[in-house]
Each structure stands twice: as structure tokens, then as C-alpha cells.
Amino acid sequence: MIGGTGYTGVELLRLLATHSAASLGVITSRSEAGTPVSDLYPSLRGSVDLNFTVPDATALAQCDVVFSATPNGIAMTHARDLLDQGVKLIDLAADFRIKDIPTWEHWYGMTHVCPDLVAGAVYGLPELNRSVIAQAKLVANPGCYPTATTLGLLPLFEGARGDDVALVDASTLVVDAKSGVTGAGRSAKVANLFSEVADSFKAYGAAGHRHHPEIWQNISSVTQQAVGLTFIPHLLPMLRGIHATIYADLLDSAQPLEAIHERFTNYYSNEPFVDILPLGQHPETRSVKSSNVCRIAIHKAVGSNKLVVLSVIDNLTKGAAGQAVQNMNIMFGLDETEGLSSPAIMP
Ligand SMILES: NC(=O)C1=CN([C@@H]2O[C@H](COP(=O)(O)OP(=O)(O)OC[C@H]3O[C@@H](n4cnc5c(N)ncnc54)[C@H](OP(=O)(O)O)[C@@H]3O)[C@@H](O)[C@H]2O)C=CC1
Ligand SMILES: CC(=O)N[C@@H](CCC(=O)OP(=O)(O)O)C(=O)O
């Protein structure tokens, strides 16, 4: 694993430590090289007995799969070497998520060093791409907001697998999403200090956030309609969790909510990590804390033609490390739920 000291890194370690088919070979950190992992994370004492080491291409090449839990722009510098040596790569950052390279370079503010690898990378949302993930050598693990949002929207466009009659007007999508502060990573600066975020609440990136093109790409891949999307992220004073409230105009305002609910339930009936709540309920972020589940509810807002989808995940689990382990399981032909079946921690 590259980037073992970060928040997604330690979540990967927590999940992999008890995974029956995985053994950890290398856990890198430049700043903590030589330090036992359990000195930094006592939660892993007795579970992970390795020291952090500096990133080293030779050591990484001994692994079957490398997770890159690093800031954007790092995995792309390791990818070719690893792939050439037969090592599979799962990037938790965004280097391989966006197919259109000028769009990626615009939002991420850097030049892509291996644009030729992007075309062959598989976007690692199992509910959308399971069969291609199984064959993939390079997986682009989705962003946290795009995971919660895309799972909330897919059944409105794809129908019950093969029935692609859309239920909503794709030009009217509004996503009002909130994240806990771990979404910003462990190296986040002053803006994420307890004294800056506690007892307060704010939006950010209202004029544009880099997850906009990712969500747009996902929804455009499942509908012929032109996608019009407003996406506004917010920072919540909690550690983990994402809550996406998604609004879309129904194409048929007479459509009974029960029929839409049935479509969601059927769409995800074979999915181990998507739970559709009964009508009338509202999902809570704590109901998915540290679990790999995305929990969804649908409502019709009184006085409007809007369908409202509420979707919650843990940003570090289904939004990052849990989804990465799910992808690893699929890539290696393992039980997809291996290492991921613990329910959430409540309260
Ligand atoms: N936090 C979240 O909820 C989510 C995060 N992601 C994405 O996952 C990735 C990791 O996020 P997160 O764990 O929060 O980040 P953190 O900032 O918490 O951790 C980053 C890790 O990368 C290492 N690192 C930093 N720079 C380099 C470098 N140049 N070369 C090698 N290693 C480096 C750091 O260790 P050291 O500096 O010691 O080497 C550290 O271990 C990011 O791209 C993020 O956008 C995706 C979905 C959700
Ligand atoms: C709360 C918070 O700051 N969240 C982060 C989301 C980080 C993330 O997961 O995004 P990538 O994987 O695409 O880099 C943000 O809005 O930038």
C-alpha cells in the first residue's frame, strides 16, 4: 500500500488486517518511514506488525495488488512500472477516474503523465461495472461524493437492469451533499481543525467542485439525455459520513412512489452493499458508520414534482477503502463481501 498513514490508508489496514485472503506486504510513508504502524495507530496493535517504509518500486513490485491511498497525481507516477511488472493497481485518488484528459487536467490543475493508461482503467463502482472490474488491471476507485450520488441516481435511469426508461429529467439534477471532516484527509490544514468546524456548518466549492465532472460522467454513461447537474458539497462537524440529498424532476408526475420504490428495490436486489429503506424512512450517516453499505431512501416532496433521493455512506469505507477492498475481491475472484460484512457501529 502506498500512503499508509492517511485516513483512507488506515481504514484499508483495518479492513485488510482481518481479510482471509490478503496479507500485507508493504505499507509506505515518507514521513513515518521506520515507525511501527501500530505506534501511529494503536488500534492496529496485534493486527498489523509491519513498519512504514519509504515507497520503493522493487518492494511494491513483489505484491499482487497495490492500493495507492495518496493525494491526486501520485498513482499516475507509479502506474506504468507496476502494470508492466504484472502488479494490479487500485488508485483511491482521482488520477484515472475521468476519461476526458483536458477535463481532468482542468479540475485537478496538473498535466496527466500517462493519459494512455486512462482509457484502459476501469471505474471501480461495482454496482455499475462489476464484470469489467473482474478483468481489470487498473481500477480507478470512485470519489466519496460520486459514490453516494451515483448509487442514488442509477435506478432512475437504468431501470431494472435492461429497462432503460428514465423516470426523471436528467437536466434537472440537484445534489446537496454533506461530508464529515475525514473526507479532507489527515493532512488537511487549519480549515479542518476542531475549533474551525465544531458547532458550525458551511457549504464549500459552490461555484464548482472536482467531483462534478465525475458524477456527470457516471450519469451520462447510463442515459441518452443531456445531463444538467448542480452539485454543492458541505462540511459537517462529524468525523465520518456522507449524506447526499438528491433532487430530480419526475417525467411523469402521476407516477406512484410505490412503483419507483419497487424499481429501486429490484435494481439493487442482488447488491450486497446497497440497502433500500422502506417508504417513509430517512437514512442516517451513523447507520453506515465504518460499514461498506450505501443506504438509500426515496421521497416525493410535497408541493412539487420533485423526487428526492437520500443516500448515505461512510466516506472512508464505501466512499474509499471499503470499496477498494470490494474491487480487490472482484479482481481476484474472491467472495465480494470478504472482509466487509461487519454492520455499522451504532450509536
Ligand atoms: N478521505 C476520504 O474520505 C477520501 C479520500 N479519497 C482520496 O484518497 C486519497 C487518500 O486520501 P486520504 O487518506 O484522505 O489522504 P491523507 O492526506 O490522509 O493521506 C495521504 C497519504 O499519502 C501519503 N503521501 C502523500 N504524498 C505522497 C507522495 N508524494 N508519495 C507517496 N505518498 C504520499 C502520505 O504519507 P507520507 O506523506 O508520509 O508519505 C499519507 O499516507 C486522496 O487522493 C483522496 O482524495 C477518496 C475518497 C474518500
Ligand atoms: C470534506 C472534504 O474536504 N472532502 C473532500 C473530498 C475528497 C475526496 O475524496 O475527493 P477525491 O478522492 O476526488 O480527491 C473535498 O471536497 O475535497
TrEMBL record:
Q: What are the UniProt keywords, alphabetically?
A: Amino-acid biosynthesis, Arginine biosynthesis, Cytoplasm, NADP, Oxidoreductase
Under the heading InterPro entries, the entry gives: AGPR, AGPR_AS, AGPR_dimerisation_dom, AGPR_type-1, NAD(P)-bd_dom_sf, Semialdehyde_DH_NAD-bd
Predominant location? cytoplasm
What Gene Ontology terms for biological process does this UniProt record contain?
Answer: L-arginine biosynthetic process
User: What cellular component terms from Gene Ontology apply here?
Assistant: cytoplasm
Listed GO MF terms: N-acetyl-gamma-glutamyl-phosphate reductase activity; NAD binding; NADP+ binding
Q: What domain of life is recorded for the organism? A: Bacteria
Q: Where is the Semialdehyde dehydrogenase NAD-binding domain?
A: 2-136
What subcellular compartments does it reside in? Answer: Cytoplasm
Pathway membership, UniProt = Amino-acid biosynthesis; L-arginine biosynthesis; N(2)-acetyl-L-ornithine from L-glutamate: step 3/4
Q: Where is the active site?
A: C144
Supply the EC number(s): 1.2.1.38
Record Gene3D superfamilies: Dihydrodipicolinate Reductase, domain 2 (3.30.360.10), NAD(P)-binding Rossmann-like Domain (3.40.50.720)
- Family annotation (HAMAP family): ArgC_type1 (MF_00150)
Which NCBIfam families does the annotation name?
Answer: argC (TIGR01850)
Q: Which family does it belong to?
A: Belongs to the NAGSA dehydrogenase family. Type 1 subfamily.
Its job: Catalyzes the NADPH-dependent reduction of N-acetyl-5-glutamyl phosphate to yield N-acetyl-L-glutamate 5-semialdehyde.
- Write down what this protein is called: N-acetyl-gamma-glutamyl-phosphate reductase
What is this protein's gene name?
argC
